[in-house]
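Researcher: Re-running this chain for the archive, since the previous output was lost when a drive failed. Same request as before.
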Amino acid sequence: MAFHEGELLVQDRAGARGEARRVGQMLRVEIRPDVRPWLAERRFVVLAAETVGGRVWVSILAGPPGVVRSSDDGTQLDLTALPDQADPIAPAISPGSSIGVLAIDFAARRRYRVNGAVRSAGAGISVEVREAFGNCPKYIHAYVSLPDGPVSHESPRTSERLDDRQKQWIEQVGTLFLGTTHPDAGADVSHRGGAAGFVRVTGPRELVWGDYSGNRLFQSLGNTAVHPPAGLLFVEPETGSTLQLTGALDIDWSPEAAASIPGAERVLRFSITEIVERRTAIPLRWARGESSPFNPPAR
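Model: Regenerated structure tokens:
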């Protein structure tokens, strides 16, 4: 599979073109046979898509095992549920639209990404697979599943600035999900993790975190290099509440910025356009298990 111009630009700047070419051999246009039964056991997936208005949103779709499944030949991914109409990602899900899907098993520290195009969106979502690949277990926080909890159907809270409680929420997280898009390659969603506090709130409308060593493909940063709109999702594990942010992502390549965050190779700055908070949005609950042994210190 060919890399697009943004990925090549970031790979070159990071001095990782050769390594990316080697690692990129794992990219497929179908879901691997060994992954298909694992997907069928998942109880949630994370989605990213861009609305007609150009805002990228990231959301979580939860249900019983089987909420996601692959076709026998791995060329189609079926989600058996739809985002709630109060979810800001809902308008972005329609036939022909681009979508990024991430399945992750926190306890096993395993994740798999599927990018493609929506074939249909009726009782669920059918996705034509265009890119599928696994990621290494780095920086995955091993949350422990708890019994399900109630789901609230109250209206989401929307704003353009983080309040004090939301700032505290973000500054305590060990996990976030990042959605980006490319005008031609489409949407992608990835996991980002670190020690609690690895995301810094530098203002009511700005977040900063370090970009650690990863698979060297730079899909997220490659998209950002040519198309800055991005989205973030934070999930509160004990309550199932979600915090969705849409805005723009910027890559700070300066050595001074990287030196300010332990373990960072670059620094990512996210400027907030809109915030949607949904209390107890999903039934799933987790306890905060062991942190990843790969995590650099947060400060």
